[in-house]
Specification:
240 residues, alpha+beta, eight-stranded mixed beta sheet, 3 helices
Amino acid sequence: MRIVTLNTWKNEGHYATRLRLMAEGLATLDPDVVCLQEAFSAKGFDTAATLGMSLGLHVAAQPARAKPRRTPEGWIESTSGLALLSRTPVTDTFRITLSSDPRDGERIAQLARLAPDILVLNLHLTHLSAASPVRARQLAEALDGARSWDGQLIVAGDLNAAADAPELAILEGHLDPNAPGTLQGPRADRARTGPAIDHVALLRPGRWRIARRFNALDQPDTDGWFASDHAAVVADLVCD
């Protein structure tokens, strides 16, 4: 089973170009499940639906963080939430409301069952640099929301913290401390680097294990555009 997580960067940058690059890059990866964060949706725009249709995957979206955002046609009411793309229909899904910081706004988690013995928790924790206690609380709340659901638990998304950050201590031993950076864009001429803040972890014992993790969608096109300002993180799961 191949899991991909990608922060899609709302509708920033050259959105149409990036959407095409995301579709092409994800198609090459041929994932079974894609966890999207900052999935932009507004009248005439829908990142998750567009990618789902392009890839032939089912879509389960949880809109959040409603606000006006700028488009080439002007300001438009929109959301920037979480979404799951899956090879099989997601029939069991749940929205978890998380604590938030007034400077940041609404944060949620998306919990879904992928198979009888495996769940996925899609996350986008607060980006505020001084909010590590809030991030720790959000993570704990999300995990608590999944506590009563049986099965191994995939935690995937933009956690906005490095693997060794104190606020991610609850995931100690499940993250890759040597993961390459996942910040990159928006363009090659303004590329930046940083520690990996997008992660995939597998919690609870069971028949699945992560065989490898790697970054993808981390190269610019010929015009210098990246698919997003984050690289995708890919995790391949195998059964023992």
